[in-house]
Design brief:
CATH topology: Rossmann fold
Radius of gyration: 17 Å
Mean pLDDT: 81
Number of strands: 5
Low-confidence stretches: 1-5, 7-17
Order of helices and strands: HEHEHHEHEHHE
Distance between the termini: 46 Å
Strand content: 5-15%
CATH superfamily: P-loop containing nucleotide triphosphate hydrolases
Number of helices: 7
CATH class: Alpha Beta
Shape: globular
Number of domains: 1
Strand order of the largest sheet: 2-3-1-4-5
Largest sheet: 5 strands, parallel
CATH architecture: 3-Layer(aba) Sandwich
Length: 186
């Protein structure tokens, strides 16, 4: 079902709802999924995580680590996830998107989609030192917690994705926040 922008804006105006989409981003191993699970529970939000979608829909079809093959399928998931998110927002819900958001372009796309339907969006950027993140990934590979583990992340995959992450700038975070997730207690 496709919900038009005009329909969403009309419903939001009529109900005077303050709905929200939260985009959770950060480099690999920073704790995006753990944070998203906690945040969604706290807000009573619906959470979408790209790792579980990709694992369920495409892992059995993947023959090698081909970035272009993978990104094409990630983008298909993005489209479907956004269509579902629109429906939730029309009903007054809050959506937490744990979609990686590796690049500024990916984040800008979803902020724009939210803007197009009159929905508030926030970017929550998680950061932690690379050595802590690498250790977390290794532990996640060992633990295989079904709430957090979708597939094994090898050193090659870690390094590959590490080089592609674009840190959000101040303008991206104007309505959002940075969360330092280094394991320290403050």
């Amino acid at each position: 079902m496709f919900v038009s922008c005009a329909t969403v804006q009309s419903v939001l105006f009529q109900k005077e709802l303050r709905v929200k989409v939260i985009l959770v981003c950060g480099p690999i191993g920073v704790g995006k999924t753990t944070y998203s699970i906690s945040l969604a529970k706290k807000l009573g939000a619906i959470r979408f995580s790209i790792d579980s979608w990709m694992q369920t829909l495409f892992t059995k079809d993947m023959r090698s680590l081909d970035y272009s093959w993978m990104i094409e399928r990630v983008e298909r998931c993005y489209q479907q996830i956004w269509q579902m998110s629109e429906q939730i927002l029309v009903l007054g819900g809050v959506v937490v998107l744990d979609l990686g958001f590796t690049t500024n372009a990916q984040r800008s796309l979803f902020v724009g989609l939210a803007d197009n339907i009159g929905t508030n969006s926030e970017i929550h950027y998680l950061s932690a030192p690379v050595d802590i993140r690498r250790a977390r990934v290794k532990q996640r590979n060992i633990d295989k917690d079904p709430n957090l583990y979708s597939f094994e992340v090898t050193d090659f995959m870690f390094d590959f994705m590490e080089a592609r992450f674009e840190i959000p700038d101040e303008s991206e975070l104007h309505d959002g926040q940075e969360i330092i997730n280094d394991g320290s207690v403050t």
